[in-house]
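*** Residues and shapes ***
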Amino acid sequence: MVTDRLIYTNSAGKSIEFSVDSVFHTNIRTDVSGLIGVKTTIRKSQVVGVDGEIETGHHVESRDIDITGFIDNDYYRDNDASMRELAAVFSPFYTGILRIEGEQVYEIDVRPEEAPDPGRKAGARFPAFSISLIALNPNWRLSYEKTATIADSGTEVYYDGTKPCGIQIEITANADTVDMESFTIQHGEDTRTITFRTGGGVYLDTDDEMVLDTAPGQVNVTLNDTVALERLDMANSAFPLELYPGVNTVSWSAYGDEADFEVVIRYTPLYLGV
């Protein structure tokens, strides 16, 4: 893997670049750990009459990423301000996205576990820093999204990733009184359905837009940019609603002609290593 730089952007939109050319000087090859490789927990049991143990399953653990480096300003009087900036951007009150830019661009959702204390390095010529991040979902994704416009219920979508991934479904109404009941994704024998509440589901008028977002480990519904999670019938929904490697059939149940609304799916391939 050839990596030129890391860029962290927190949920407030503030970014820090780590590279040999950055004020926040970091050699990605030697000063960063956790970008490649993950830990796996193997579940096993003992069986009478069988030597050794039998594996019953495995679980890929969260990813720990550690970044070290030093502040390298032309004028050392600017170092204290840079350290304060670093601490502010990596505040534990924000989540963030860490992006790798090299031969390809990957990104991963992270949360700061430990950020530098600017008070400890005040006045230093080249103050060192150490930052610890955790990615609860250890999978990297390509920085671009793939998009599929669904022509009608029962459309097949081919997903070429290596791990199941969440999806974002956009439904835009072209006519009044479109009533969405449910969405289903089928992969082989596995079927997952998201159902909306009877009598309080999703009624769309012309130009209304509903977005169903099922990022890994999460689910959200917005209607015209307003959170509408209460419209899901959780008791009769099967999670997670994901695309699996290979062919997936996307279908739905709705009152109204299919010409009355448009359906677009967005998804991003996931990778354990980069």
Remarks:
- The chain has two domains: 3-138, 146-271.
- The chain has two helices and 24 strands.
